[in-house]
Structure prediction request, 298 residues.
Amino acid sequence: MTQPAVEAPADRAVVDPIRENLLLVALSALAFGLLFAEPIRLLVRDWWTDPEAGQGLLLGPVAVWMAWRTGLRKDARPNPVLGVLILVAAILLRYVSGLAAELFTMRVSVLMGLAGLTTYYLGFRQVLSWWLPFTLLGCSIPIPEVVKSAMTLPLQFRASRLGAALLEWRNIPVRLTGNVIMVPGHQLFVTEACSGLRSLTALVSLALLMGALWLRTPLARVAMLGTSILIAILINAVRVFLTGFLVVYVDPRMGEGFMHLTEGWLLFVVSLGMTAGVTWLFGLVERAFRRTPSEAAV
Prediction:
């Protein structure tokens, strides 16, 4: 009598190649660590010491958790050829950027190396399945200084104009010169730290994460990102307005030091709440449009 065939677990085809090549996987991880140790070390250092890169302390662990939560595709298959090509490109980028001492591309090479290893052992479909973890890791890489400099000044001017408009709306005499707001008896300087770039990058990263976790359609996720940018600009303008208002009517010391810093943190918390609220509203809209006609008639 023949015995019925026993079906292998659905994920066995994924797990077995890794277990069978465990030594090769360990050697690959060791080589990756040695080759990319310097850019990883510098990246973690910036996460810890640079306030404008601090979101990496959250995004890095969350990206690892999201990869684990997503898991492996049942149809994942190794793709050594494409994996090697991506790894070679990552190594070349690492070498060239190291010669030029260009940190951004050096850090991008780490992300490419991770994508190459994933493709080599699990296939490119697994990279696509882990699009959110890879995107979060990309958002954790600090913006290049050239791009940062190009963005900071326009943001300073925009915050100055909007803040001055809000002050005029409250009948406070205002004279605006570039990023300097002159109110009765005082001058307010909208510095680089007040440009809102730091909160902008943090809110965009948060909106990306919230959209991926709680929204289902690409349109809603893109709208969430756009809304987060508007929230960041609006909240920064409100911060400039509040600073001028408090300086004129309460105490000039409210525009500097600990009080000014506390005001910024409180408004950032407000922006986080607004982002969460908008995500919730978009989720309600999505569920309303996805209801069937029979459900709508009940």
Remarks:
- The radius of gyration is 25 Å.
